[in-house]
Amino acid sequence: MTTRLAFDLGAGSGRAVLGRLGSRRIELQEVHRFPNQPVQAGPRLHWDILRLLHELKQGLLQAKRHAGQEPASMAIDSWAVDFGLLGADGELLGNPVHYRDRRTDGVMERLRERHGDEWLFSRSGLQFLPFNTIYQLAAMSEQGSPQLKQAQTLLMIPDLLRYFLTGVKRQEFTNATTTGLLNPQTRSWDNELLKAAGVPVRLFAPLAQPGAAAGELTEALRGELGLGPIEVLCAAEHDTASAVAAVPALEDNFAYLSCGTWSLMGTEVPEPVLSAEALRYNFTNEGGVEGSWRLLKNIMGLWILEETRREWEREGHCPGYAELLQEVQALPAGGPLIDPDDSRFLHAGAMTPRIREWCRETGQPEPRGYGGYARCILESLALQYRYIFEQTEQASGRRFSGLHMVGGGIQNRLLCQWTADSLGLPVWAGPAEGSAIGNLAVQWIAAGELSGVREARRVIRDSFDVEQYEPSGGTGTSAMAAEAYGRFLALKEKM
Ligand code: LFR
User: Fold this and answer.
1) SS3 of 302, please?
2) pTM of the predicted model over 0.80
3) Measured from the CB, is residue 286 less than 6 Å from ligand 1?
4) Which letter does DSSP use for residue 448 in this model?
C-alpha cells in the first residue's frame, strides 16, 4: 500500500488529501483544508499566491503527521488559465492576477474582430471566454506591461507552486490546453497564436505530460519543514482534467458534469472536435489524460449562489445552506429564471441586483426572499444543464443514457435531483472529491500501481459511493420540467 498526496486548489478553497491504494481500493484522508481568498489591491484582483504556498507547506507537515512518514509522491492541481511570470533570475515578477479581474475587458472582442472566430478556434480549439490566458496576456501586451517585457518564463498556478517547492520549471500539458495558446492538433504551443496576442515565444518550453517527474522538494524547504525527500510529479494539473479522470464510468461513451464553483459539462473524445457546430455552440477542447480530449463547456455554476451568499453575509445575515435549501423546496414551481451564462454574472460583487435586472429585462417578477433567489439560481442551472447536455450530444454526435456528476457541488442533493428531472435521465452522483482523486490516480498510474485510467475508474467506482437519481416522473422529461424548459428557452430568446 502506498500513500500519496494530492493538493487540490479550487477558486474558493484548497485541500491536501492523502490517498492510500490497497488491493483495488482507495482510501482518502483530508489532512488540511484552507480558504483561498482573492485580494483586491488597487485596481487589480489577485490570488494570494504566497499564502497558498504557506498552506501547501502546512499540508506537507500534516501529511507526514497523519501518515507517520513522508508520502511516496505529491502533485498539485488547480483552477486553470491563471499564471505567474518569472524574470531571468527565476524570481516571480508580480503577484498572479485573478481570472475575474477586469483587465481583460474588451480584449477578447478585439482579438476576435482582428483574427476571426474561425481562425482562432481552428488553431486553439478553445471556447471564447474573456479570461482565457491568451486574452490576459494580450491585455498585458496592449498595456505595455513592464512585467511582460522582463518575463522569461510563464508558469501556470500549479506549475508555479510546484516550482516554489522544487526549483524545477515545468509547464504541464492539460493546464496549457486552457490557455488558448496551444494547438490541439500539434499538441504544443502555437507560434501564430502567440504572435496574434503579442506574447513572447521565450516564455514557453516543451510540455510535461500528466504523471511526468518534476523534481523533489528543495533541500532548503526540507530543512525548513524537517522533512525527508518527497518525489514531486505533475498531476493532470487542470482540476477539471483531474476530475474527468476520476469519473467512475465503465464505458468510453459518457457525459460528465464537474460541479463546483464552475459547472463543466461535456464528454471525453479521442481527438479534438473542431467542427463548425462546436464553434457555434462555443465548446472547448481541453487536454485530458492518456492523450484524450475533453470536449466541454463552462457553465457559470454554483458561483452565482456562492457570490449571492457572500453578498448576504456582507449585509449581516445569510441563512445556512440546509435552511436555504429547505426554503427553496417550500416554494412553488414556476418562479423566475435567469440565464446563468449571461456574462453579467461573471464578475465578483453583489449578485441580487443583477438577477433582478435580468428578470426585469425579460418581463419576469423579481425573486422574493432568500429562498426565492436560491430557487431561481438552482432551477436555472438545472435547465441550463439540459441545454448544454443536448448541445454536447450534437457536437459529439453521441447519445448518452445519463449524466455522471462529480465534485463538491453534488452535496447539493436538490440540484442533482433537479438535474435528473430536467434531463429526464438518471444522474449518477459521486465522488465529491473528483479532482483530488484524479490527481492521485495519475500518481498511481505513473508509479505503475494502476495500469491506466480505465483501471483507475473501475477502482474509483468500487471505492466510493455513487448515488443514483432517477427523474421524478420516471425516464423522459416530466410535464413540469418540460414547461420550465420551454419557458427557459423563450426567455433566452428574448435576450
Ligand atoms: C474549474 C476551472 C474551469 C476553468 C475555470 C477557470 O475549477 O478550472 O475548468 O475554466 O476553473 O480557471
Assistant:
1) coil
2) yes
3) no
4) T
